[in-house]
Amino acid sequence: MNSTFKKLSLASAVAVAGVGISGVAGATAALDADVKGDAAIVPYYNVAGGYVTGVHIINTSAKTTPVKVRLRQRSDSEDVLDFNVVMSPGDVWTGIIKARDSDGAVTMTSSDTTCTVPKMTSAGLSAGLVADEGYVEIFAMAQPIAYTGATEGTTYTAGEQAPVAVAAKHVAGVPRDCEFVKDNFLRNKSSTAASSSGAGVWRSDLTGAVGQLGAQTVTSFQTTHWGPADDSLKVSWFIREQDAGWEVGGNAQHISMFMDEASMSNQSSALPGLETYADPLGFDFPNQNGGSQTYTAVGATMAASTITHGDMARTGYADLFATELSRTSASNDWVYKVGDGTEITADWVVTFPGQINLCRDANDIGYTAASGKYSGGVTVSWSAYDREEGQYAVTPEDDIVVSPAPPGGVAPTQKLTEEVNLIRYSDDGADTVGAFGDVSTKVVAANGYENGWAAMSISGNPDKTVCDYTPYAAPAVGTTSTRLADDANLARNADNDLTQTNMAWNEQDLPASNSVITLGYAAWKKVRADEPGANYGRAVEHTWTNS
User: Strands, DSSP E only, in 340-393?
Assistant: First the structure.
């Protein structure tokens, strides 16, 4: 099938030109494997018990593209690890997610030479956090554009002549200068452009660093101007059980036209908690709720430039509810044949990505403004069938169902409380070790049947609200103030870092709907202990009903 989806107008992305958030101009869920995107989500990673997960990113464009890669943990979407991959035109980057031998911490490794920020080492990149399972979100942050002005540093007539693009390109298989590339992702600590202290992210569309590139003979401060990225990413994944040689894989969920502005952010700052953003240009951006702070107006020089303030509400996650990712049911096969040294199963992965952006109360999944705690869940119910058109009763593991189950079947309900949920259909509900190992798998008892198909309804709280701290406490729309590095709403600590001192809590109501942004697939697995060469796996995406 060759299907594309209608482009949806998302008028709330940026209401007024000026300072804003790199928002969603017309997000379209690109479900066809032939459709690329500027964002992608890998529904599940697993590094438990000998499993590894591979991520494969292709930059199909003729433009240099910095890509944000972020791992989020299974239970609540908290950030586990994030870094940037700066891909040259036509570049391919591959990485392996695994558990570090010394302490089990999630680690991304790669033998690829493409520039990463921070720099990829032989030991890989790790934040030291143990999170065996989760999902991966990937964003094209920006692409370089020509700059021929006279007030903001380096001039060049084509985007690929920009300093970062020149430095990131491979020569004899190795990028020219990954150190220069890295310095463009520092946190800017100075309003003086012509110095090493001016290196880093000045705005979401402007970065700079000191370097000497190509045929240059003089080392100088050089700026790169950025524009929005096109739909150039092709992302795929695999999960491999190394001992048994069992593997599944497929395409990531691509999202096209997710951001309509450049969203460059530094890799030096963190959000200390839900209560305050430390840096509106920090590495927590972009994410599923949009990009980093944007600017349009500049002054006579970089140091004296001004900002024109506009609407700064980040609306990315809310806008995703207007795409084909907003779903109310999933259907797929299931299989459970275990015995005599053979295991044939088709377990389900069901992912509700990004619900960290939701807030409400104890009855709704997400975070609350008051406590910042994850609570609630998504209500699901099952209707299961054998392969001969017969429906039968199924029982979820927590037995939330009438008992005894009447003939003809019921649709038992259950709360799925995690962002990534694993579901095993088995003949008696006793097998809690799923296809992906000894993990917290939800089990549905199929009362003696070995295979069939099931439909799972999905229902979230219809009164959903997106919670976010506006990453800049803006003056009135249309007024101006000094450049970010000198703004009165920002202070400097003892290390000369910028810190936010005036934040605003933003709650955005969504249209009333029970739909939930949902991804997932059935993971088919066949393992024979006496004939490992016969082992195989495949991932079959669920068929969805959309809101």
Answer: 342-351, 358-359, 378-385, 391-392
